[in-house]
Model the fold of this input.
Amino acid sequence: MPNSIGHRMPQQIPIVDYLVLSEPPHLEAHACTGCDALYFDRRNACAHCGGTEFTRKPLSNEGRVRAYTIVHRAAPSVPAPYTSVVVDLDDGGVVKANLLDVTGPEHIEPGMPVRLGTYVAGVDDDGVEAVAFGYRRQEDAA
Ligand SMILES: [Zn+2]
Done:
């Protein structure tokens, strides 16, 4: 067995299995081969056409805000306020996620362009980092 200890890069795991930690990180959906419907969870059959075959499809990292909600109250462990957005991705797919770094409604407008961003949401006892994703305003992410 080769000794793999030596490079102590922090190990990272995505917090959801549709977040792929490649370079750059991106989301991957299950696309129905019958009708191109996109699902983030694994399905036995397509809700639209009943098809049972799916392929993995990488989704665009860029999209536009369709709707947003500023959440002022959350569980004690969750910093509030935070902004929850629904994003229409450029090449299809709709994602609900948090808008990163922005909490004021004056900074948000419908149709605003955003880009995927990742952050470390927690570290376990072995030093493995749990990586989550959200979206940033494209003007902030430049
Ligand atoms: Zn389908």
Q: What stands out?
A: The mean pLDDT is 89. Residues 12-141 form one domain. The pocket of zinc ion is lined by residues 32, 34-35, 37, 46, 48-49, 51 (CB under 6 Å).
